[in-house]
């Protein structure tokens, strides 16, 4: 963790490692080197996902995939994502050593994965690499995504050397360990929480068009202020959450303003709206409410507003067998546990559509995530690793069978 945190170190405890940046490339290069030194075959697919493949049981054996992502938010925390990759490699290597020492012939092969652009900070939408892998997004769509400077995913994959041609592995299940990013575990005095459900999300991009003009002489009644229109929309987005407290989370965390000069009435604003809910009906209701309100909100500012893109991530449930296996592992080590939903997106959410998947959470101090003071104690990091190791062990001893894993003591 110390080593991977050095890539993009911001000097205040955090990291700045957006997808396909130089810092991200450095972290990925380091991971690939670590994998190759340990005898893994490194594959890079055509959307930039990195897979370290370890064949311990022959070509036809079941395959277990574990991992997360190395990209971060701008000036984000050092545990989000990176911990999941490091703990994956640590757990697989520990099982490999343990099996050799005990004379156990492994029955499964393993894949350590680093998904491309989980965060969605530089390129939208989030979960980009895992969504292409799972088939919910097309490769052409993903490659054409642009950052603020107009650089495409394809261009940056080529620049950083991660536009691969390898056929990605097709494992039988996916395990991901992650910091919670909330206070539920900490407040309840628990250490392990398998996520049982993932909330759905709508990522909506709204373009507000006004008229550029001088902020001095232009009469107030003649102004067509795109940011004023954006402000009305932002307030409405928050109002939706207040109307459905606890069942709808909303945000507008990014606004791109043009031309973004203090002396110009803005002619354009693009809003990045998020609506998150556990139930499809709530997402449909909030989307309909926002669409219905847009014309009036725009008219109030003498501007025009239109939705230019919607990315939809459906709600769902993680595999209950993997939930139970995580709970068995926690119990073996005496770790207090609870079940949680995940409101945030994770790569396992995308992958869950094509194979059994799970995210297991460990506590976040004060619930902080996406910030430099994001922190999980070494003891809790190790607890997540121990549970992951036990899940790997039980799956291997059961011949990769999810139905039988856990029965072997």
From TrEMBL:
UniProt remark on cofactor binding: Binds 2 Zn(2+) ions per subunit.
Residues engaged in binding Zn(2+) 1: 69, 80, 178
Molecular-function GO term, any one: hydrolase activity, acting on carbon-nitrogen (but not peptide) bonds, in linear amidines
Region (Disordered): 1-20
Residues annotated as binding Zn(2+) 2: 80, 119, 370
Keyword hit for Disulfide bond: no
Domain Peptidase M20 dimerisation as annotated: residue spans: 198-299
Protein name: Amidase, hydantoinase/carbamoylase family
Organism this protein belongs to: Hoeflea phototrophica (strain DSM 17068 / NCIMB 14078 / DFL-43)
């Amino acid at each position: 963790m110390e080593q991977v945190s050095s890539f993009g170190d911001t000097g205040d405890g955090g990291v700045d490692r957006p997808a396909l940046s130089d810092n991200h490339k450095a972290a990925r290069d380091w991971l690939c080197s670590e994998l190759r030194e340990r005898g893994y075959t490194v594959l890079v697919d055509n959307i930039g996902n990195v897979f370290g493949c370890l064949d311990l049981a022959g070509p036809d054996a079941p395959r277990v995939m574990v991992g997360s992502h190395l990209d971060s938010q701008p000036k984000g925390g050092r545990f989000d994502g990176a911990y999941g990759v490091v703990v994956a490699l640590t757990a697989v290597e520990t099982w490999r050593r343990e099996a050799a020492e005990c004379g156990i012939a492994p029955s499964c092969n393993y894949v350590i994965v680093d998904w491309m652009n989980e965060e969605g900070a530089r390129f939208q939408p989030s979960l980009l690499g895992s969504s292409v892998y799972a088939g919910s997004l097309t490769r052409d769509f993903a490659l054409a995504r642009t950052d603020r400077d107009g650089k495409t995913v394809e261009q940056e994959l080529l620049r950083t050397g991660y536009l691969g041609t390898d056929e990605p592995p097709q494992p039988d299940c996916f395990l991901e360990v992650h910091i919670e990013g909330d206070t539920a575990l900490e407040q309840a005095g628990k250490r392990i929480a398998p996520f049982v459900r993932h909330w759905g999300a709508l990522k909506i991009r709204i373009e507000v068009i006004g008229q550029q003009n001088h902020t001095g002489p232009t009469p107030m009644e003649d102004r067509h202020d795109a940011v004023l229109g954006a402000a009305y929309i932002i307030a409405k987005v928050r109002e939706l959450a207040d109307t459905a407290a606890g069942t709808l989370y909303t945000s507008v965390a990014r606004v791109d303003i043009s031309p973004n000069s203090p002396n110009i009435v803005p002619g354009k604003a693009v809003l990045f709206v998020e609506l998150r809910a556990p139930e499809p009906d709530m997402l449909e209701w909030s989307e309909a409410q926002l669409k219905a309100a847009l014309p009036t909100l725009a008219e109030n500012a003498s501007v025009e507003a239109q939705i230019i893109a919607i990315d939809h991530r459906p709600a769902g449930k993680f595999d209950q067998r993997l939930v139970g296996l995580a709970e068995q592992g926690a119990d073996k080590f005496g770790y207090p546990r609870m079940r949680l939903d995940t409101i945030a997106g994770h790569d396992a959410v995308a992958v869950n559509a094509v194979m059994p998947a799970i995210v297991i959470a460990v506590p976040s101090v004060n619930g902080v995530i996406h910030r430099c003071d994001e922190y999980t104690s070494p003891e809790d990091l190790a607890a997540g690793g121990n549970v992951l190791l036990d899940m790997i062990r039980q799956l291997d001893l059961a011949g990769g069978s999810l139905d039988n894993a856990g029965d072997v003591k």
